[in-house]
TrEMBL record:
MF annotations from Gene Ontology: undecaprenyldiphospho-muramoylpentapeptide beta-N-acetylglucosaminyltransferase activity
Record: residues binding UDP-N-acetyl-alpha-D-glucosamine: T14, G15, G16, N127, R168, S199, Q294
Keyword Glycosyltransferase: yes
Family per similarity comment: Belongs to the glycosyltransferase 28 family. MurG subfamily.
Domain Glycosyltransferase family 28 N-terminal: from-to ranges: 7-145
Main location: membrane
Protein name: UDP-N-acetylglucosamine--N-acetylmuramyl-(pentapeptide) pyrophosphoryl-undecaprenol N-acetylglucosamine transferase
GO biological process assignments: carbohydrate metabolic process; cell division; cell wall organization; peptidoglycan biosynthetic process; regulation of cell shape
Keywords: Cell cycle, Cell division, Cell membrane, Cell shape, Cell wall biogenesis/degradation, Glycosyltransferase, Membrane, Peptidoglycan synthesis, Transferase
Top-level taxonomy: Bacteria, Pseudomonadati, Verrucomicrobiota, Verrucomicrobiia, Verrucomicrobiales
Source species of the chain: Persicirhabdus sediminis
Amino acid sequence: MPSSLNVVIACGGTGGHLFPGIAVAEEMRRRGHTVTLLISEKKVDAQASSKYGDLDFRTIPAIAKPATFSIKMVPFMAKMWQTIGQCKKILKELNADAVLGMGGFTSLAPVYAAHKLGLKSFVHDSNALPGKANRLTSRWCNAVFLGLEEASSYFPNSKVVITGTPVRSELTKLPSRDDAAAKWKLNPELKTILVMGGSQGAKQLNTVVATTASAMPDVQFLHLTGNRDFDRVNELAAAHPNHHVVSFCDDMPSAYAASDLTICRSGASSLSEISYLEMASILVPYPYAADDHQTKNAEVFADAGAALLRQEADLDSGSLLADLTQILFESNQLAEMAEKSASIAIKDAASQICGAIESA
Ligand SMILES: CC(=O)N[C@H]1[C@@H](OP(=O)(O)OP(=O)(O)OC[C@H]2O[C@@H](n3ccc(=O)[nH]c3=O)[C@H](O)[C@@H]2O)O[C@H](CO)[C@@H](O)[C@@H]1O
């Protein structure tokens, strides 16, 4: 491949695809390559990418495969076919050398288009149980980059490179705890829990956290509810000054820097960030995630002793209160979990991915 590459990174659909894609884009640019990111037209992509005005973004249609094989497959296939055509045009116009898909059916179209045009193509999967789109896409790829070793049995051995999942560069340098606490109007002296309810609906988790916060006045909660549940949780939190509610956080470095422990879904980007930042966590997998892949992700962390795995169906404020009291006040568990969390991280993931693309 030429020494200066035109690389296209398809990373639309969710924060879990977008942020690792941005991290690779930043590293590619640092190495002197030209990068274009393909994102979807969804609001979440627009919201999350708006901070990265110096990167080149283009939109392509968001594509989700119907959950079951039904008549809905017909418009899905038609949209896929049309988007592949659109992607071929974009790749030719950009004079692309290589395409990296970060997962989901939205990135299948650009990777397939690259394959048809004879370009180098790659896919990254960050989950312990890889998605269907990536398993399909991988057959057209030169290499498959994996966030977690547990996923490797789903792909041909010869294509697999364990790279880890990159975190955004802004997370590589956190503000001080005092500055971060000031930003969120928190007391830096108090133990602080970061709760990431998630964009996909976490009503029960959010409610349990609100009740638990009311029973722990000496602990602070910085609670990211997602846009949909903000008004309801904000109302529940109104009577409790230790419960700080935010809908979408566009300053994750200070959210993490202000916190001692995270309660969150076990989406792969959240997990890569937590381990990169060497934090302990309580993981509550999103129960409706495809093939329950979030439980598989959480198991990697729980088995390593880095996290407690709690299924949403079993979660109530009594058990969460007991877990938090034990971790924060009755043991050395917080420090031990943080150490185990650090041991899972692959801190130079973006660099490993760029190096593998350069040398393909
Ligand atoms: C419901 C579902 O199927 N989610 C999947 C989706 O990730 P999904 O995007 O839901 O979740 P992830 O944990 O992977 O990523 C969330 C990202 O959003 C950021 N964040 C969060 C809250 C906020 O207010 N501000 C903010 O910036 C987090 O720091 C993180 O970078 O794709 C991932 C990668 O395939 C999967 O592992 C997840 O299981």
